[in-house]
């Protein structure tokens, strides 16, 4: 029978793999959105900055995995990457793509916050003492969630304004 510490370490390892794959999904979603944004430079700028943060978050997760003699899960990476691309494509055909993206981005950032909070509890339970990088990633996600939430109303107003002029307000 596995010890409590071994079980907690296994849970933490699974959480790390999941978080790393989740960040892969986030990159796919943001990269697809940035490719298509034209009318919303404030969102494009925010996403480009967060893409860089997300790449660093993946590095931090890899560093923790390495300390546990683990590496990212190729299967989880592939599945999450596919899901990120599929989500972005699904929104791209909608006339209100930007609105759907804003709602999805708000939800996704909060999902990532919950993921990092859970991961920190797992790491603590596993006796992993170096959680600074994960806390930094959590702080970045909290900041991004706030900024995305702050853009929902102005982006919606801009979408309405552009559409009212008879122009394509899609992206």
Please tally the helical runs, counting DSSP H or I stretches of 4 or more residues: 5
Q: What average pLDDT do the residues reach?
A: 87
Alpha-beta content class: mainly alpha
Overall number of domains: 1
Q: What is the end-to-end distance?
A: 55 Å
Q: Could you tell me the number of beta strands?
A: 0
Strand content: under 5%
Largest sheet: none
The low-pLDDT segments are: none
Radius of gyration: 18 Å
Predict the CATH topology. Ferritin
What are the secondary-structure elements, in order, as H or E? HHHHH
Under CATH at level 1, the class stands as Mainly Alpha
Shape: elongated
The level of helicity is: over 70%
The CATH superfamily is known as Ferritin, core subunit, four-helix bundle
CATH architecture grouping = Up-down Bundle
């Amino acid at each position: 029978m596995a010890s409590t510490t071994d079980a907690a370490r296994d849970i933490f390892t699974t959480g790390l793999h999941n978080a790393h794959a989740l960040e892969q999904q986030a990159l796919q979603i943001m990269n697809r959105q940035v490719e298509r944004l034209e009318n919303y430079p404030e969102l494009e700028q925010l996403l480009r900055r967060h893409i860089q943060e997300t790449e660093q978050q993946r590095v931090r997760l890899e560093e923790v995995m390495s300390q546990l003699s683990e590496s990212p899960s190729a299967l989880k990476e592939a599945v999450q990457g596919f899901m990120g691309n599929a989500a972005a494509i699904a929104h791209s055909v909608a006339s209100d793509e930007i609105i759907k993206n804003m709602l999805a981005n708000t939800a996704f950032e909060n999902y990532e916050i919950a993921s990092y909070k859970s991961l920190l509890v797992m790491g603590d339970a596993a006796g992993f003492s170096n959680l600074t990088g994960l806390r930094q990633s959590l702080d970045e996600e909290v900041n991004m969630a706030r900024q995305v939430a702050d853009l929902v109303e102005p982006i919606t107003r801009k979408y309405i304004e552009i559409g009212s002029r008879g122009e394509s307000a899609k992206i």
